[in-house]
Amino acid sequence: MDGGGRGCSSEIIPLFPLETPLFPGVVLPLNIFEPRYRRLMADLSALPADSGLRRFGVVSIRQGWEVERVAPAEALYDVGCTAVVRAVAAQADGGYQVVAVGADRFRLLDVLLPEDDSTEPPYLRAEVEWLHEEEAAEEAAGDAEGLVGADGVPGTVPHEVASSVARGSLEVLTGNVRDLFAQYVAEVTRRQVGDGPDFDELDPADADEEPDVATELLREVTDDARGLSYLVASAALLTAEDRQSLLAESATRRRLTMESRLLRRELTLLRTVGAVPVPLRQFATPMTAN
């Protein structure tokens, strides 16, 4: 189990189950119409805008839709991501149009069900622990284990050398996933809307023409390893289990390694079967650096 990114204490947050996981940095637009979640948005809107508390936890539904009618441990995956509300607009019918952005990953410790005769909020809440990202230290340590020093002893390479090797190998892995994802988007595009864009010929500065979905998606691709890993996880047409595994993975290097394998698998299926299960518009997932 990962350690908490904000210390050892747990925290109770509102919970919003969805059919697919949310990833850090991914934009989440929502049309809120259900009464209990209208109450959630009203409660969040009442909080100070700069408090950092206008957020809720998104968890993916493992089975069914009426989570309250089954044991939450069976209905929900245990790793989710907070959604920070960036914009909320009340509608004439009492609903809300909401734009949120994925932020911090967490693990469910307990799900608190609302009670009919309780003064507690009518929406789900959960006790969670925060999951940290294993970044530079983990990457360098992992690579150092496989290196042999001048004395011939494994693992005795100087830290700065190990760190340099780690950075270099992560850059190679990032470039590999970036290229595979570009091929993947092009393959999906060709099968749905004809010839797809050439990733190397894209000009992000060209704003005169209305970009198609594939071009929009490829323009989100970044050389930042962590950002790229979450873009691929959220945008590729993967199974719920694959996406959940990527969300639960705390190390960027291991997440990218998984994605390299998954993209190669999906490319092989695309080129062999020659079909894509959903329209390309559902394939696009906006990202933000914040």
The strand order across the widest sheet is: 1-3-4-5-6
pLDDT averaged residue by residue? 78
- The level of helicity is 25-40%
Strand content: 15-25%
Structural class comes to alpha+beta
The unreliable regions are: 1-7, 143-159, 199-211
Tally the helices: what do you get?
Answer: 8
Total DSSP E strands: 6
What's the end-to-end separation, in Å? 27 Å
Helix-strand pattern, N to C? EEHEHEEEHHHHHH
Provide the number of structural domains. Answer: 2
What does this entry look like structurally?
It is a single chain. With 290 residues, the chain is α+β, with helices and mostly antiparallel strands. The chain has two domains: 120 residues, Archaeosine Trna-guanine Transglycosylase, Chain: A, domain 4 (Roll), CATH 2.30.130; 148 residues, no CATH class. It is 37% helix and 19% strand. The protein has a five-stranded mixed β-barrel with strand order 1-3-4-5-6. Strand 4 and strand 5 form a beta hairpin. The chain is globular, with a radius of gyration of 21 Å. The N terminus is likely disordered.
